[in-house]
Amino acid sequence: MSGRVVLVTGAASGIGRAVAEAFAADGERVVVADVAMEEAEKAAATFGALAVRLDVSDPASVEAALDTVTDRLGPVEVLVNNAGVVAGGGPLIDLPHEIFDRVVSVNLRGTFNVTKAVAKRMIEAGIAGRVVNISSIGARQPTAGLGHYEATKAGVDALTRTAALELAPSGILVNGVAPGPVYTPMTAGLMDIPEARQAWESRIPLRKIATPADLTPLVVFLASPAAGHITGATIQVDGGQLLT
C-alpha cells in the first residue's frame, strides 16, 4: 500500500477532521482517532480513512488503538496531536477543580500519552517519523477566563521542544501549530453571537476568524520531507493576533 500511516487524534470533527481529510487527499493512509467512535466512523467514511476509538487521557486506550492501527495499516509514521477540550471557563478563583483536571487530562496528559507511545514504536520500527502538535496562541497571549486551557497549551509547547530534542537522534521531527480563534463546532456557539465574534475579530489585524482550512497546509507541510530541517518550532496561524 502507498502513502504513510497518519494518525490524527480528535479527528471526528473540527480542526482534526480537516487535517485528516487533507492528508487523505494527499494519498496518505489516515486514521481518524477519537473517543466519539460513531462520529469518527462517519468522518472516516467520507474520505476513506480508518476510524479507531482512542481516549488520549488513558494510556491503555492509546496502546489498544495503536495495536489496531498497526494490525490494519502498519506502524504510525505521522502523528498529529489534535485532541483538546476547553470544558468550561471562568476566572481562576472560581474555576471548578474538575474542569481544570479535565482539560489537563486531555490537552496536556493526552499529548504526552500519545507522543510517548507512538514515538517509542517509531524508534523500535526504525521510522524517522513526524509529530505535529496543535497548540494555541493562548499559550503566549492570555485571555481572561481561559487560563486553564492556555496553561495546558503552554505545556504542549514545552513538550514539543523537549520531544524534538530527545527524538532528534532517531530522526523524528516534532513541531507545533498554534492557531488563534478558529471557527469549529466547538466554538460555533460563541462565534455565532455577533457581539462575541466582533470582540474576537477586533484583536486580529486581518479582522477575520480562521477556519480549519487555514491551518491544514501548515500541518501537512510540517509532516512533509520539505520540512526536513525544522524541529522544535511552534508556528502561529493567527491572522497577526500576536502582533497586538
TrEMBL record:
<keyword id="KW-0560">Oxidoreductase</keyword>
<protein>
    <submittedName>
        <fullName>Short-chain dehydrogenase</fullName>
    </submittedName>
</protein>
<dbReference type="GO" id="GO:0030497">
    <property type="term" value="P:fatty acid elongation"/>
</dbReference>
<dbReference type="InterPro" id="IPR057326">
    <property type="entry name" value="KR_dom"/>
</dbReference>
<dbReference type="GO" id="GO:0016616">
    <property type="term" value="F:oxidoreductase activity, acting on the CH-OH group of donors, NAD or NADP as acceptor"/>
</dbReference>
<comment type="similarity">
    <text>Belongs to the short-chain dehydrogenases/reductases (SDR) family.</text>
</comment>
<dbReference type="Pfam" id="PF13561">
    <property type="entry name" value="adh_short_C2"/>
</dbReference>
<dbReference type="InterPro" id="IPR036291">
    <property type="entry name" value="NAD(P)-bd_dom_sf"/>
</dbReference>
<dbReference type="InterPro" id="IPR002347">
    <property type="entry name" value="SDR_fam"/>
</dbReference>
<feature type="domain" description="Ketoreductase">
    <location>
        <begin position="4"/>
        <end position="180"/>
    </location>
</feature>
